[in-house]
Design brief:
Layout: H1 33-36, H2 72-84, H3 106-112, H4 115-118, H5 130-147, E1 151-153, H6 159-176, E2 184-188, H7 194-201, E3 205-209, H8 219-225, E4 230-236, H9 248-257, E5 261-265, H10 278-281, E6 285-287, H11 290-293, E7 308-310, E8 322-326, E9 329-333, H12 351-387, E10 404-406, H13 418-427, E11 434-435, E12 445-447, H14 455-473, H15 477-481, H16 494-499, H17 510-515
Parallel strand pairs: 2-3, 2-4, 4-5, 5-6
Antiparallel strand pairs: 1-7, 6-7, 8-9, 10-12, 11-12
EC number: 1.4.4.2
GO molecular function: glycine dehydrogenase (decarboxylating) activity
Catalytic activity: N(6)-[(R)-lipoyl]-L-lysyl-[glycine-cleavage complex H protein] + glycine + H(+) = N(6)-[(R)-S(8)-aminomethyldihydrolipoyl]-L-lysyl-[glycine-cleavage complex H protein] + CO2
Length: 516
């Protein structure tokens, strides 16, 4: 390879823009790559090539690719500067309720990057991946052990995908019994939005079940909604108000007596893992978010994994591929058997997620997993106890599970909304909690500290939240309605950004910029 002979522009500021000097340069306005680089140079030399023929059926590009040329230092610094403007779990607490953003142990990452796991390909011969199959079988064993269920499908890629898997198994089970007429699915009003969406996607009619005054589902309301046309109930436990469904065993019995199945949304399994086995409560199917409960990374669209555990009644309807242990080892079943609904996805799933989750399980052990769940519950109740005299809790007077729920009643008459309050948290160095969810509570503020946070971190969070609440109630609305003022960017028009997104970069109009 020849040495680079093109050179780079040396005019001061030509490559990096005006970053300034002194303290302001510590957090500069970072332009886009298109604005940093130019189209006349490149950081590497590529040889000129001749393309003898057009093999793209006339679709070959006719114009220049129009990509900016940058050196390696320019590209590296650009992304490092962007990373310093981003909030992450490695830089601070993420109090998002129903998202479980907790610390991801680096041991998990080290194991997932072992060549035998990181470098395998889904199409290579099964005989060459016996170690990976062993990891998957071990993970499957412990998922079934933790939930007291008979089978598990590892292939779903996330929670909603797992819901689809479980409900397809339920649909197949009804069809096998000649009960395809069951077209109704019961969904509590506090459910995750994916629950009714999944049911509707599969052709079911959704019937909502109202929450009682305690924020949970009443067994009598379920019984009143049951009929011979009901296929299943989709119930989250612990639910999205951060509460344990105290009548879940009675609900399961009523559902089964009516000939329906019990799908449990296991998004909040991290609150009860190692302490309560959902199978003992009567569930027939439940997805488990490995990227929440067992500390594998998530966010930004993935990667994720949402295995589904199945009861004995639904085990025959698990999708392929699945693992089967026999006397000679582990068999990867690729062909549909019996009345199973078929294949959910092309390949088995996210290998890296399996490795991380199993590493988390084995490094904690049974007692450690139970302790993590108890610590998550303890931290949430600690926050609730420290804040409920200033904040308004819609279901006060009862302990919570992994998250504490507040509403906006304490802000009434202040001119400050839940959104304003959350924006002010950014100025104080904390990521906002989940806002306006669950929908059963007006102006909801859902806070989940997880088990990762220390007492010192929780106390710092509490002090900030209390100071903000007191300032809002004292009449200082301007602090909140103008926030954030100390973030890299001020308050954005998020509604307009969602409805009118700019999906393509367009060079700015120099004349317009000069006029501004």
């Amino acid at each position: 390879m020849s040495m680079n002979t093109q050179g780079r522009p040396t005019t001061p500021g030509a490559a990096t823009g005006s970053l300034g000097s002194g303290p302001a340069a510590l957090l500069p306005a970072e332009p886009l790559l298109f604005e940093i680089g130019d189209r006349d140079h490149s950081g590497v030399d590529l040889p000129d090539i001749e393309v003898p023929e057009d093999r793209l059926g006339g679709l070959r590009r006719k114009s220049e690719l129009d990509l900016p040329g940058l050196t390696e230092p320019e590209a590296m610094r650009h992304y490092v500067r962007l990373s310093r403007r981003n909030y992450s779990i490695d830089s601070g607490m993420y109090p998002l309720g129903s998202c479980t953003m907790k610390h991801n142990p680096r041991l998990n990452e080290k194991m997932a990057r072992l060549p035998g796991f990181a470098d395998i390909h889904p199409l290579q011969p099964v005989s060459t991946v016996s170690g990976a199959l062993g990891v998957m079988a071990e993970l499957s064993h412990w998922l079934m052990e933790l939930t007291n269920t008979a089978a598990v499908a590892l292939s779903p890629k996330a929670g909603a995908h797992g819901e689809l898997c479980g409900m397809m198994a339920i649909k197949a089970a009804h069809a096998a019994k000649g009960q395809g007429h069951r077209k109704i699915v019961l969904v509590p009003e506090s459910a995750h939005g994916t629950n009714p969406a999944t049911a509707a996607f599969l052709g079911y009619s959704v019937k909502s079940i109202d929450a009682n005054d305690n924020g949970t589902v009443d067994v009598e309301a379920v019984k009143a909604a049951l009929s011979g046309d009901v296929a299943a109930i989709m119930l989250t436990n612990p639910n999205t108000c951060g509460l344990f469904e105290s009548q879940i065993i009675e609900i399961a019995a009523a559902v089964h007596e009516a000939g329906a199945y019990f799908y449990c949304d296991g998004a909040n399994f991290n609150a009860i893992m190692g302490v309560v086995r959902p199978g003992d409560l009567g569930i027939d199917a439940m997805h488990i978010n490995l990227h929440k409960t067992f500390s594998t990374p998530h966010g930004g669209g993935g990667p994720g994994a949402g295995p589904v555990v199945l009861s004995e009644a639904l085990a025959p309807f698990a999708p392929v591929p699945f693992l089967r242990k026999d006397g000679e080892g582990i068999d990867l079943v690729e062909h549909v058997e019996g009345s199973a609904f078929g294949r959910l996805t092309a390949f088995h799933g996210q290998m890296g997620m399996y490795v991380r989750a199993l590493t988390y399980m084995l490094s904690h052990g049974a007692d450690g997993l139970a302790q993590a769940a108890r610590d998550a519950v303890l931290n949430a109740n600690y926050l609730k106890a420290r804040l409920e005299d200033l904040f308004s809790a819609p279901f006060n007077g009862q302990p919570v599970m992994h998250e504490a729920l507040f509403d906006d009643e304490f802000l009434k008459g202040t001119g400050v909304s839940t959104l304003d309050f959350a924006k002010a948290m950014i100025d104080e160095g904390f990521h906002p909690m989940t806002m306006y969810f669950p929908l059963v509570v007006h102006g909801a503020m859902l806070i989940e500290p997880t088990e990762s946070e220390s007492l010192q971190t929780l106390d710092a969070f509490v002090m900030t939240m209390r100071e903000l609440a007191e300032d809002a109630r004292s009449g200082n609305a301007e602090r909140f309605t103008s926030a954030p003022t100390r973030a890299p960017l001020r308050r954005l028009d998020e509604t307009r950004a969602a409805r009118q997104p700019r999906l393509k970069w367009i060079a700015p109009d120099d004349a317009l910029e000069a006029a501004q």
